[in-house]
């Protein structure tokens, strides 16, 4: 926010250009804005007045800015991911890429033998950026939630001695951390969008009461559906069809079942299963927490092994597709429960 909130006083700065447009910032608005020659200044109903904003305790002003910035950045990043992973190809036809850079269309044999496609490489690139970014934000929001609860308790203890804080405290005393963020301007989901009928868009909406969804890798970045998808070409798609790609059904004739093979891997998911390792403030020290004792011992000695977890997969050929299933899948931790073997092998 381009505003020094520590040194505010009543002032108005107006610059008028040759076209008649002007920029305004005054005590009645936190954000200011661009006004046309015939428009009068006004603040959106959900934008706090400057006088109200600067009277709030510093932490809550900071949290508002943190939340607004997070929500705007998340929407911008997911819009880019959707374009790269669910956009259109050079022919103008819809595409469906996985977060690993694979085309999800085509028959089982093609996808069993397929490698990362050039047309989907930017999807993989954007998903990698997003995964690292959202992982850091997930760690941040856990800290913010603990801080919020502590600061709210402080307000409760001192509100009778501070008029400004007393008024603000009454506004939020029954508001949870999730509700506080949900009320922010940029953290409200758009209503009435034509994409509301598209389930995948619903699964990527901001919901601070659903941390796994809001801070997940995003469904746009998941592996391909096991049996692939079929996308209608732009010429054969109705204008009202906002979801041009549909999951395929398994082939009824392909009943061959191969031998099941267990595969164990180690990954660094960054979440550490929310382990505190003895800490009382909810923090983590990055040490691997797993029933695999050898891994735990290594994590104590070598930083390379810190934060690793063990995953157990079972892979076999079913209904014509070589596929793997993760044992003890957790939506809060893991990206995919089912994945085609070729994509799993090349991760």
From TrEMBL:
<feature type="coiled-coil region">
    <location>
        <begin position="134"/>
        <end position="161"/>
    </location>
</feature>
<dbReference type="Pfam" id="PF18562">
    <property type="entry name" value="CIDR1_gamma"/>
</dbReference>
<dbReference type="InterPro" id="IPR041480">
    <property type="entry name" value="CIDR1_gamma"/>
</dbReference>
<dbReference type="InterPro" id="IPR054595">
    <property type="entry name" value="DBL_C"/>
</dbReference>
<protein>
    <submittedName>
        <fullName>Uncharacterized protein</fullName>
    </submittedName>
</protein>
<keyword id="KW-0175">Coiled coil</keyword>
<dbReference type="Pfam" id="PF22672">
    <property type="entry name" value="DBL_C"/>
</dbReference>
<feature type="compositionally biased region" description="Low complexity">
    <location>
        <begin position="276"/>
        <end position="286"/>
    </location>
</feature>
<feature type="compositionally biased region" description="Polar residues">
    <location>
        <begin position="245"/>
        <end position="254"/>
    </location>
</feature>
<feature type="region of interest" description="Disordered">
    <location>
        <begin position="14"/>
        <end position="48"/>
    </location>
</feature>
<feature type="compositionally biased region" description="Polar residues">
    <location>
        <begin position="28"/>
        <end position="45"/>
    </location>
</feature>
<feature type="domain" description="Cysteine-rich interdomain region 1 gamma">
    <location>
        <begin position="286"/>
        <end position="328"/>
    </location>
</feature>
<feature type="domain" description="Duffy-binding-like">
    <location>
        <begin position="65"/>
        <end position="218"/>
    </location>
</feature>
<feature type="region of interest" description="Disordered">
    <location>
        <begin position="234"/>
        <end position="288"/>
    </location>
</feature>
């Amino acid at each position: 926010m381009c505003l020094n909130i520590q040194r505010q006083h009543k002032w108005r700065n107006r610059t008028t250009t040759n076209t008649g447009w002007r920029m305004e910032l005054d005590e009645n608005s936190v954000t200011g804005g661009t006004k046309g020659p015939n428009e009068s200044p006004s603040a959106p109903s959900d934008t706090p007045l400057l006088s109200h904003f600067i009277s709030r305790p510093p932490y809550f002003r900071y949290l508002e800015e943190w939340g607004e910035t997070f929500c705007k950045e998340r929407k911008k990043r997911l819009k880019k991911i959707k374009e790269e992973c669910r956009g259109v190809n050079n022919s103008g036809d819809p595409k469906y890429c996985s977060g690993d850079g694979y085309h999800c269309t085509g028959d089982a044999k093609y996808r069993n033998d397929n490698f990362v496609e050039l047309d989907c490489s930017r999807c993989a690139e954007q998903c990698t950026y997003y995964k690292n970014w959202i992982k850091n934000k997930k760690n941040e929001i856990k800290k913010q939630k603990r801080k919020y609860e502590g600061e709210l308790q402080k307000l409760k203890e001192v509100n009778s001695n501070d008029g400004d804080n007393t008024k603000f405290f009454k506004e939020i005393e029954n508001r949870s951390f999730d509700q506080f963020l949900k009320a922010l301007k940029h953290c409200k989901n758009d209503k009435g969008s034509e994409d509301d009928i598209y389930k995948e868009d619903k699964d990527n909406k901001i919901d601070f009461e659903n941390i796994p969804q809001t801070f997940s890798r995003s469904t746009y970045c998941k592996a391909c559906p096991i049996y692939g998808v079929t996308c209608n070409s732009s010429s054969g798609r109705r204008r009202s069809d906002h979801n041009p790609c549909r999951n395929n059904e398994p082939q009824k004739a392909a009943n061959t079942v191969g031998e099941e093979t267990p595969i164990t891997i180690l990954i660094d998911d960054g979440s550490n299963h929310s382990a505190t390792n003895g800490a009382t403030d909810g923090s983590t020290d990055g040490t691997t927490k797993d029933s695999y004792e050898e891994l735990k011992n290594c994590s104590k000695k070598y930083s390379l092994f810190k934060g690793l977890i063990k995953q157990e997969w079972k892979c076999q050929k079913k209904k014509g597709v070589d596929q793997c299933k993760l044992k003890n899948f957790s939506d809060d931790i893991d990206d995919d429960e089912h994945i085609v073997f070729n994509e799993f092998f090349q991760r």
